[in-house]
Amino acid sequence: MRHLLVVLALICGLARAADPAVLLEPAAVWTGDSAPHSGWAVLVEGKRITAVGPAASLRVPANARRIALPGKTLIPGLMDLHSHVLLHPYNEVLWDDQVLKEPIEYRSMLAVRHAALTLQSGFTTLRDLGTEGAEYADVSIKRAIDEGIIPGPRLLIATKAIVATHTYGPAPRNYRHDHAFPQGAQEVTGVDEAVKAVREQAAHGADWIKFYADYRFGPNGTARPTLSQEEMNAIVQAAHQSGRKVAAHAATDDAIRMAVLAGVDTIEHGYGASEATFRLMAERKTVYVPTLTAPEATSEYFQKYQRGGPPSASMQQAARAFQLARKLGVTIACGSDVGVFAHGTSARELIWMVKLGMSPLEALRSATVVAAQVIDKSAELGAIQNGLLADLVAVEGDPTRDIGAVQQVRFVMKNGEVVRHD
Ligand SMILES: [Zn+2]
Question: Looking at CB atoms within 10 Å, which of 191, 282, 325, 394 has the fewest?
Fold first, then answer.
């Protein structure tokens, strides 16, 4: 079987790992810091970058394969720190129906396609924040990618995620009370159950622990904090003790503050954060993952928003939070909530960040250098430097001038393997 796969990969022109060296010759190289360097080249040997600099200055092995990328800028592989490979857009199938009606096997097969589309779009790393009812399916998807069985980005996974009992979805109020339905995350009540869930998820393969600090379970479906402060504290403590970082879904100011005080590493969404709460995040170095594309997508699906038209209330709230966080010096990492919208289009998040005030350079850094810091992978990923893993993407033009270039991907390399070359 393994031989068959290798043969197939060779036929597809994808398996180049055996090549001794590859020299990439783009128009310019953006290493992850300031302006792109024109006339630079990058040498890749095996999985790693072994030289970066002016093309004439590199010592290139005589048998190196040369790949010319004229007119293109080479950038580090992009990262989306908030994805759901096991979800697909809600205008195709509502979230409740995905969780209740789609078998996990079927969702896993969709995820295989989602992973391939993501990698083709230049996103070489995802932090995938919860399977949304698909149990531990992400563990196997990650394994299949790592073993080279299926193409996809490297994944950091959160498995089931953690919610307070009866606060998440499918919301019990919408269904028969005499039946129990699958839930979108693991339910806990009390410190003991919260700690146990962390340990279970960690043991099954979670790289990150994710919990929902609030959700729409208040009167009339309003968002309210869900877990208690003690439960949040216990989750963070157990996760950190196990060497795992914690991401908190939180949209209301109260829940964001509680999660930050509990010591979470990243706040997801954060749309309702007050100035005082963002100041607290800046002070405590809690990272903000704004997911700006999600409200655009749900406004399109459910509120008749048309792209380019006047923003909906939820989009305005997201824009306010993003601009306030940026003004107050909160670290912002790129995370889109892709899955809510189509996989392979995570670059929409970078477009939004620039539309709302970031420079293209700042947005690119949030999806490369900064993202790598957040996931503790700066020694391996997020920049173009000697010794780092060769996750490299070539885009048309100069993305530090026109961020739209990130939607014009022409070449993708992951771990030193060419996985796309138009
Ligand atoms: Zn999400």
Answer: 282
